[in-house]
Specification:
Elements lengths: L1 H12 L1 H23 L2 H12 L18
Length: about 70
């Protein structure tokens, strides 16, 4: 509980610096997610759904292993 109180005290003391820090962290996490997945549009347009298209119920391994001709 003490940490939460300290956090709000810091936010009140330096609102501009706190806002910049929070937005910078959120932006960095977003950029890492975009780079790791390839493109943002592919991620939003169903890139995750394509990974489990084999009907295995959530198998997140990409590739063609398990497919038969």
């Amino acid at each position: 509980m003490r940490i939460i109180r300290q956090t709000f005290a810091i936010l009140k003391q330096n609102p501009l610096l706190s806002t910049i820090s929070i937005l910078g962290t959120a932006f960095a996490i977003t950029m890492i997610m975009v780079v790791e997945h390839g493109t943002l549009s592919g991620w939003l347009a169903g890139g995750l759904a394509a990974d489990s298209a084999d009907g295995s119920g959530g198998n997140m391994v990409s590739g063609t292993a398990g497919y038969e001709d």
